[in-house]
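Section handout 9: paired folding examples.
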Amino acid sequence: MEELIEVLSHWSDPEFLARYRNYLVLTVFLYSFFEVIFPPLPGDSLLILSGSISGLSGVNPLAVMISASLGTFASSVLLYSFGAKMGKKLLQSPKYSHLMSSKSFQKFETWFQRYGFCTILLSRFIPIVRSGIVLAAGMVNLNRGKTFLSVGISIILSTTFFVMSGRFLGRNWRRLPEMWHYRIKMLFLILLCLMILFFILIWLWKMVKMIRFEKRKTQEQNE
């Protein structure tokens, strides 16, 4: 606990964080493994944070991406295998039915029928339901080899994106105010213009609605 507090208190010190680079890789592997089995865990946030720490401490981002990918892939294989073993019996199982509702299973099954393995390829970019997609793929017995290949590609793409995004933030966090000062001003100006346009459209819509109401009322009186 004392070491954890010390790490948190020195999170912006690259030389200090570099001493814990091995812990970072191991932590990412374990967290990525359990994130698939326990979906509420925010896996993407951890990858961004890990990428930031790797940027600050000089840890090779490839080590972070490999450990995250291996952990996620290993647990995905276990989840698929469990779904293949249980099949649709899982939906009525008093012990495991909480893992997949009939409504969710029907939705995933429809996705597989419409989009095939593209559903698996995009699964890592779909928060909350991605673990359910892998489980459902096993339950409907999607081709094991193609499923694992699709899962692997999805994991590599998503892990690379989130880790490298975090690494960019970690290496440039001191320069962000300078880098984004002009962009933030432009964004604020654009949002302000959009808000003004929105209120103008609302006002026009109300005016048109009022005119139509008065016109209809006048017609009813004339009749």
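Moving on to protein 2 of 2.
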Amino acid sequence: MLTVGTRGSDVSRLQKTLKAAGFDPGGIDGVFGRKTKAAVQRYQHAKHLSADGVVGAHTSKKLFGSSSSKYFDGKSDFAPTGPGPVNPGHGSAPARVQRFIDSAVAQTGKPYVFGAEGPRAFDCSGLIHYALKQAGVADSRTTAAGYQARFAGSRVSRSQLKPGDLLFIHYPNSRGIGPGKASHIEIYLGNGRSMGTDNPREGARVEPVDWAHVVNASRVPQLYR
């Protein structure tokens, strides 16, 4: 199911399909926002569907020809590619890595506030800074692009990812951060899922990795010392 707040290549495909059908979603950016919802509602109304703005089984069947289409269930984008899932607190990673993960996941539900670094609210890099400190890593606060540069020497490929690695993500933005540079950062948890925060509506959360927008990834060497 695709709904407001969903991100990724599934949403990009939805937006392209809507645009091709004459229902402008306001851009093809992989972000299911207000304009995409409005386009879905217009499509649903035109096809005599319940105009709730959610791409579920009935709307998917009309759009893609199948009620179980890969275009809305995420399986094609978020299939496991690395280690199995990490269950915080169960010691399934090296001690410092596990503390890093546990500290971040424990912030689930905390509000997103730009520039915040905890403990009551976080932005994406503030959450990384906080969790690294809790894991005993001396870390000076920087941005997502700053962490990308800081750990450029310990990059890993998608196939090499381990829980606790940093995912550097680029979304279109108004901050002058160009393609290839990270505008967002998350922690890989394993099994195609990550921990991060970038949305005031949702706050800190565990979610499927948005592979379509991942630029690269790095390991934090200090977590293995």
